[in-house]
Amino acid sequence: xxxxxxxxxxxxLSISGRIILDMHSLNNEGGEGNQILTRQVTIIxxxxxxxxxxxxxxxxxxxxxxxxxYNVAIETGLNLCSSCKVFNANRITDDAQFxxxxxxxxxxxxxxxxxxxxxxxxxxxxxxxxxxxxNLPRKSVAEFGxxxxxxxxxxxxxxxxxKLVPNAGxxxxxxxxxxxxxxxxFHRPANSGIYALVSNFDxxxxxxxxxxxxxxxxxxxxxxxxxxxxxxxxxxxxKPTGAMRNTQNxxxxxxxxxxxxxxxxxxxxxxxxxxxxxxxxxxxxxENLNKIADNSVTVEKFKSLxxxxxxxxxxxxxxxxLKLKENEKKENEKEE
Length: 336
What we know:
Elements: E1 8-10, E2 12-24, E3 28-32, E4 35-38, E5 40-44, E6 50-56, H1 58-76, H2 96-100, H3 108-118, H4 120-125, E7 127-129, E8 136-138, E9 142-144, E10 147-163, H5 174-178, E11 184-201, E12 208-209, E13 214-215, H6 219-238, H7 245-248, E14 251-262, H8 278-292, E15 297-302, H9 305-318, E16 319-321, H10 328-335
Parallel strand pairs: 1-16
Antiparallel strand pairs: 2-11, 2-14, 3-4, 5-6, 6-10, 7-8, 9-11, 10-11, 12-13, 14-15
Helix pairs in contact: 1-6, 6-9
């Protein structure tokens, strides 16, 4: 696989939209007694009024996307560190071979090059390397905001459940209670609502060493990682994995919104879908940005999950990651 002609290059890509999720429990934050709690946040609406709503954290969305990226990376044979090969959350910091490959006194840019060459997931999902007393951050290419319910269109209900066991009235010993084998009751929430989404992906940074300002991997490897990243983003909205899916698999009723992407240093515009006019504002922002640099920003609107998959497959099949202008001094040093 190599770079092909007539493919549009993408520097950054943003998705803003509204997704309707019914009867889900993706956002539990723990329990008190036998009551499982749903995550609540307070937002400020466009009129400046505070409103409590339920929400799914950006951490959860990022975890879902990373899990899909892992599956694609394994399937397509991308380079992964030993930890990411088993989806260990410690990633490359738990890779003994990587730790042995450098000392504290080694330049950060050289250690970062090793990281980028070794693992596609650490490259695109980010990590803080603290091995050998280093303090070396790799900023993620993927960024997710919270999935926030619209105040006027969300509801949380709690449902009573019982775990029945035979002969529950005969009593249980301490050991049995510790093993949680007795009959018990519990309350579990279910959430339904229209949720606003914001996310951004700096695809030009795939394989890019932010310290040396050069790319650590070749064009073919960058394109493979780019396609894996885009597929993982698409799959995130097709299958939002999370808490309690075994009995509360979310009903995805609809997903509508805007995909925007840029072909240079102009950021792909995004406006929160908490604003009812978000889609029109993004279109107008793109028009204004294109008056600064012609054809820099492209906007694709979608009204359903079907249209989203249609737009996204076109991006996967017909685009490549933009390559930033590299640090010439460092490039010359590499050639020498």
